[in-house]
Amino acid sequence: MKSDIIVVGGGAAGLMAAIGAARQLTLSENGGTVTVLEKMPRPGRKIMITGKGRCNFTNVKPWQDFSAHIQSDPAAVNPAWHTLTPEGLIDFFRENGLRSVVERGDRAFPATMNAGDVVDALKRACTLNGVKLVTDCEVKTVDVTPRGFSLDCVQTTRKQLKFKEEVTIEPVEHSCRKLIIATGGLSYPGTGSTGDGYMWAEEMGHAIKPCFPSLTALVPAGYKSDNPLASEIKNAFRGRTVYGKTKERKIAPLPSWYPKFPKHIERVTPLSEQGALFNGNTLENVQLTLMVNGSPVQTEFGDIEFTDGGLEGPIGFTVSRRAVKALNDGQKVAVSIDLKPSVELDKLDADIHGRWQEIIDDPRSKGQSFRRLFRILLGKLIPWDLTLAFLDTNQSVSVDTLARALKDWNLPIAGFVGFERSVVTAGGVSTQDVVAKTLESKKQPGLYFAGEVLDMDCDTGGYNLQCAFATGFLAGESAAKAL
Questions:
Q1: Are 41 and 8 contacting, i.e. CB atoms less than 8 angstroms apart?
Q2: pLDDT exceeds cutoff 70 at 29
Q3: 230 or 313: which leads in pLDDT
Q4: pLDDT tens-digit profile of 125-172?
Q5: Helix, strand or coil, per DSSP, at residue 103
Q6: Of 303, 337, 345, 319, nearest to 409 (Cα)?
Q7: CA distance 360 to 363
Q8: Which residues make beta-bridge pairs with 34?
Q9: Would you state the pLDDT for residue 230?
């Protein structure tokens, strides 16, 4: 099955690459065919879960401010961003029937607050521009040929019968003149991101920067149960399975670039009693400082969420990249939470003592234990549901030391949740091996990269999806111009 341009991967970058290529072919009047090969039954699986299903698809900050949120190399993203700016992306979605709203922090969402509508708009644009979208098609190998590229694939066909689904699997070969790899990273492998693109890129001579989870949950010490999981653990790379002591199975060695994380804690590891006290609580407008080897290295202001994974939320995710790197390097990591960042220590201390005196003088306090009265005091200062977790991690706190404890709630970090639930993958195909103005490979003519498969990751807040869409559009447009 021949195409002029093939895009491998039907995510944000891949779908936009196909649209960019098809539009350019129409403008040039040369014609040509564009095909997207997506291994999952439906495209855009990861888009569907972004922003808790609301899909914060871009951030409308100007480039100078936007680029400060790119944690890799902003220069490598600059040409793509200016080819498809946030305003241009919003216009694109409006042209395809999807209005947008901009919320706090310059974050843009679909007006419907439904991520599925973003995917539908992309699919609609693909259809209107003549893109052929092939799902259930997994690319196994990529070979360079004199006329371009040959892809050996496995095509799954599903037929719904009366009482069951009939599935047939058969090999199929696709070929193209230009190839765009937009397979994503390693994050959320259940959506299809399993590192395939890294393997093909490495086979064609590209350097792969070490990959690690970014925008992920940090796990405080004591948050998870110490009991090892009895069930088998799924490895993120290409479905390999690692078994516990009850079973043994030899597996193929992982590639040289595949990361090894001694501090990785599976998200499904059960919560400890302490973790259960934290789980489900949210802190708003607090200050979080990341400590590495006892020294502050990053401070953020905003919201924190404690989940079954660990410490998350906007500012938890923001410091996670640096925390994961430090943990991987064997350094000691902790976070310090200032629960009252707008109140000076002396004023807070005076307020605490005043509130304590009121509690002591209240007739209802007669006969109550000190711990009960102290928790009542604490409940006037922080969310009630979090008071037990605070006391469990500050067992020696007193009325005289409470102010300092509230301004510096120190939580040592034992590890982090891995690719199974990290929002993005840091690392990937080195941008030094790609021409920034076209996203064409310097190693293999006719090959382009877009999206998370590149060494390109950003803060939370719409920055990652903007970069995925922008690099996809530029790669597609460039491939079409080069035909």
A1: no
A2: yes
A3: 313
A4: 999 999 999 999 999 999 999 999 999 999 999 888 777 878 899 999
A5: strand
A6: 337
A7: 8
A8: 5
A9: 30
| Cα(274)–Cα(222) distance, integer angstroms | 7
Angstrom distance (rounded) from CA 373 to CA 357: 11
Q: How far is CA 34 from the centre of its chain?
A: 28
Question: Which residue is it, tokens 């607050």?
Answer: 113
Both tokens of 92, joined, read 């694109």
Q: What are phi and psi of 6, to 5 degrees?
A: -115, 135
Residue 76, phi then psi, degrees to nearest 5 = -70, -20
> Among residues 11, 3, 31, which one has the least CA distance to residue 149?
3
**What is the rounded average pLDDT for all residues in the chain?**
92
Specify the CATH number for 2-212+423-481; select among 3.30.470.20, 3.30.450.50, 3.40.190.10, 3.50.50.60.
Answer: 3.50.50.60
Beta strand pairing status for 100-103 and 282-292?
unpaired
User: Is 13 in contact with 451 (CB distance < 8 Å)?
Assistant: yes
Q: How confident is the model at residue 227 (pLDDT cuts 50, 70, 90)?
A: low
Residue 443 class from Cβ within 10 Å (0-12 exposed, 13-18 middle, 19+ buried)?
A: middle
Nearest to 61 by CA among 450, 472, 466, 425: 466
The string of DSSP letters for 446-462 reads TEEE-GGGBS--B-TTT
Q: pTM, whole model, 2 decimals?
A: 0.91
What pLDDT is stored for residue 99 in this prediction? 98
List, as own/partner pairs, every contact residues 101-107 make where C-beta atoms lie below 8 angstroms and the sequence separation is at least 24, other chains included. 102/60, 105/59, 105/461, 106/59, 106/60, 106/61, 106/461, 106/462, 107/56, 107/58, 107/59, 107/461, 107/462
Q: How far is 452 from 178, CA to CA, in rounded Å?
A: 19
d(CA 152, CA 97): 36
- The Cα-based distances of 246 to 83, 118, 230, 249 in angstroms read 54, 45, 8, 10
Distance in angstroms (rounded) separating the CA atoms of residues 126 and 22: 8
CA dihedral (256, 258, 262, 263) positive or negative: positive
Of the candidate ranges 36-45, 254-263, 352-361, the one whose mean pLDDT is the lowest: 254-263
Domain limits, the chain:
2-212+423-481, 217-422
Kindly state the helix (H) or strand (E) to which residue 287 belongs, with its residue range: strand 282-292
Q: Can you give the pLDDT at residue 236?
A: 37
Tens of pLDDT, residue by residue over 179-226, are 999 999 999 988 989 899 999 999 999 999 999 999 999 999 999 997
Q: Which of 384, 377, 383 is nearest to 362 (CA)?
A: 377
Whole-number Å distance between alpha carbons of 235 and 184: 17
